[in-house]
Design a protein that fits this description.
- By secondary structure, this protein is of the alpha+beta class.
- The chain has one domain.
- Helices cover about 40% and strands about 30% of the residues.
- It has three helices and five strands, in the order αβαββαββ.
- The protein has helices at about 1-10, 20-30, 55-65; strands at about 15-20, 35-40, 50-55, 70, 75-79.
- The strands form two sheets. A three-stranded antiparallel beta sheet has the order 1-3-2. Strands 4-5 form a two-stranded antiparallel sheet.
- A hairpin with a 6-residue loop joins strand 2 and strand 3.
- The protein is elongated and about 40 Å long.
Length: about 80
């Protein structure tokens, strides 16, 4: 679920790196305009690596909509 991965991003330190099944969900969040994402094919592998650089203003608005509140140092807490 994209909400769960978005919560992981919010509770982590940016930039954050992902591989495998998370990449598809991250692409959905990027396409929705919620985050800035860079993709890279891994050498000698069929997998793709993704790096989340930042949340966009729209991403911050989506987090508030889903019931999370901005805290310090990119930490969010459930209301």
């Amino acid at each position: 679920m994209t909400q769960a991965i978005l919560k992981r991003i919010l509770n982590g330190q940016l930039p954050m790196h992902f591989v495998r099944e998370d990449v598809c969900q991250l692409k959905q969040l990027r396409d929705a305009g919620y985050l800035k994402l860079s993709l890279k094919a891994l050498a000698n592998d069929s997998r793709t690596a993704a790096t989340v650089a930042e949340l966009t203003p729209l991403g911050h608005a989506a987090i508030r909509y889903f019931g999370f509140e901005f805290g310090t140092q990119h930490r969010w807490t459930r209301q």
